[in-house]
């Protein structure tokens, strides 16, 4: 066991192998973490990253998005993908890094809802393309109609995680303003539930201000027209909310602030800390509002007291305007556009906070109509207006739905099944300044207790509405059965009573019907009510 | 919509916000990707990363691991975690970066099975600890009994992703050789299925050569004793296998090789390419074995032909010795140690390849005994001898199991349920030189088609054994019923026949029993057979 004890320590030998790994090398080896694990999914991920970028850019520049996607077959293995938008374009100085460097972006530090957050997505698509096709990405961008467009061909140098420019040119004929990316990659175009078309369809539903066009490898053209000409209100960038902020983050903020007094630091660095709240916090934490934040940072115990005061003192919820919910109307429209349903209920929860990040949950439940009634309930997941296509089993949305005992709401849930079965669609949207995804592929929301609880509350609320509807339906069904039964015997009973009372049986019969229609009026449809007697 | 067209292009403004993000900042914001999403899970992740590291280090140094874990409550929020091993220690020069820099490690570039692959895990625990407790990590290591141990207190500077050394000292009294890490972190100690204890129990099962000791916050001590004194065969580092290697990777290999001839490049850079195979490949690809690899790299079409030839020419499977399977015996033992079962079947698949990475799948199915018969089948997942505790719904193991129609194997599977229900345990181990996890938290294996297929094949094979057993059980049950029925009437029949034939009824009866025991011998237990007649 210890045969080497007399030699130089093994640790010396092992240390020689220690080496830094570039983030590009890391993701090249682990591209499944970025959503590139199978050929159909790789295509969806690639389109998704480009479209998300285009939508974010257009909205930041207050432009109604017009996005064109073309997918072509190059050979047996390789597809070419073009995504073109009418966005603001990408400035020349930063373009190579925006597309050719992982962890480079503009939205990472902003506390505001956006689709892209991490500065990884589109560069990951470039990385996957060069890995599988050997070809560089080709990017054309024009930031001003008066200037020519520039065209870059670039790769990512994985050892350094820096862009490697292959060629650089001008293009005078490019659209008046916008960006176009062209990639060649190993991928498969499929149809069905997990497909580019389905992703675009769902994207169009929750982004009705965008026009999206797809030309598929069979030259078939799909256009998702704009349903409205108004941009969604642009989410406002806010300061962090004190609730759930981390000790380490707080220390870092104290160290790096320009404020000289704790009081100024508190009211200028956080959302929802006004003068009064600031004073209460300092008193609760036994801290002098005049003390230096930098000094405070050195005393961990005092910072802990400050953190505890954040939790104890009542602080208003963060402003909703950093978020951009889908809204009831669109959730409803999203479902009814593709389905005829018997019942629909939507719920929008108030803004809540996890780890200092504001978030809100919206949910909709639809039932009946032409929804498939055989299998499990269908779950549609959205995060920051982006449909989530993969990893349903890993997502807090699914887990929250599975925590619910659906029998309580009148639904069927067989032993061992985690979700209800029946003609049911459940749609959940989580909007946040920082959606906590389980991985860089952004397919599933992590099981953050605060978020899971809010999802469960939203879905339960919608499920209660459904439960009431189903129980009404059941009552109505029972009542109708009773009415039918009663009707069947009314004539005979009336005739028998005519013999006993001497009254005309038609009078008795119409009296009976009157009683019936009073008692069961709410279960009788308008025509039936007319047929069956006076109102 | 276009109100800003006359100003400076918006792109110029947007470009100012573009910024590189350090990988430490990224994971600080997205710590759920590293397995730090809830308080109980954060504790498990922290212990797991430290224990995985200890096991890897001990095995690399051929030391039988002896790992001690102590978890203590510091205050309401904070736990302190100590993990100490008898491994080779970490050399002083590299220690700060091993524990204080993400993406720094020794196993990333080695093609060989190991628990750690990414150089992220333990630094992630340090990052989480400093973020939530504000405290640095304290690491003590001794690489030689003749030298003193050194003690570091360090944090990670998230803006640069470099270690920040807080203090540096010697400690003469530390154990003769090994490493100790102490972290303070926000976490919760829980018991039950997803707990530190359960993780250690499962780790001990598949690492019977390790002694693992836990002292929990209630001062209760759990010792998982060594079940064997022999280290598992150390996995051998190999070259990449040509099957499924990526075009981009191949180009990079061609560019950076020292070989001057394609022939030397092929046989020296890949596993399982000998002289004969090399010639066949070159012929198939219409390439001159004498050509320069660097020249070849410039001709993408020619590289594509080489890649196609790799797939077309028969190449031997990669050697098994880069992998370290759990083996049948241990899989069986793993299940029977904690359960009394009626039936168990184990399967070990041959080595296969995805994207050039060798992997193999082992599976075991146990049935009956004291396994809970009410709920869904329990799934136990392992990757490179590490139990996977979270994200079951996101894992290729689960997905492969859900693809199977379990009714075919005599099991109950209600409508809408994806897994069978009944007293069933399914255990799957995936061993690979590069396990494709869905995220850095290494909780779930991505849906790589090659891997999912192999898992399905392994589980199906075990399920077929179970199916045969269950059908035998059913037959035996039916036969026993028949025997019971027959026995009940034998005496009366014999007496009736005595009257007809004049033979003594006891003789007739024993004749009957003889026939019965012959026909149903395999369904009659030894005692019953003795009771019922001659052998």
From TrEMBL, chains A, B:
Biological process per Gene Ontology, one example term: DNA topological change
UniProt keyword terms in alphabetical order: ATP-binding, DNA-binding, Isomerase, Nucleotide-binding, Topoisomerase
InterPro entries reported in the protein's UniProt record: HATPase_C_sf, HATPase_dom, Ribosomal_Su5_D2-typ_SF, Ribsml_uS5_D2-typ_fold_subgr, TopoVI_B, TopoVI_B_transducer
SUPFAM superfamilies given in the database record: ATPase domain of HSP90 chaperone/DNA topoisomerase II/histidine kinase (SSF55874), Ribosomal protein S5 domain 2-like (SSF54211)
Catalytic activity from the UniProt record: ATP-dependent breakage, passage and rejoining of double-stranded DNA
Domain (Histidine kinase/HSP90-like ATPase) ranges: 38-189
Annotated ATP binding sites: 53, 85, 106-107, 116-123, 442
Molecular function as annotated in GO: ATP binding; DNA binding; DNA topoisomerase type II (double strand cut, ATP-hydrolyzing) activity
Alphabetized SMART domains for the sequence: HATPase_c
Entry's EC annotation: 5.6.2.2
Role, per record: Relaxes both positive and negative superturns and exhibits a strong decatenase activity.
Subunit organization: Homodimer. Heterotetramer of two Top6A and two Top6B chains.
Entries under PANTHER family matching the protein: DNA TOPOISOMERASE 6 SUBUNIT B
Family under the similarity heading: Belongs to the TOP6B family.
Name of the protein in its database record: Type 2 DNA topoisomerase 6 subunit B
Encoding gene (name): top6B-2
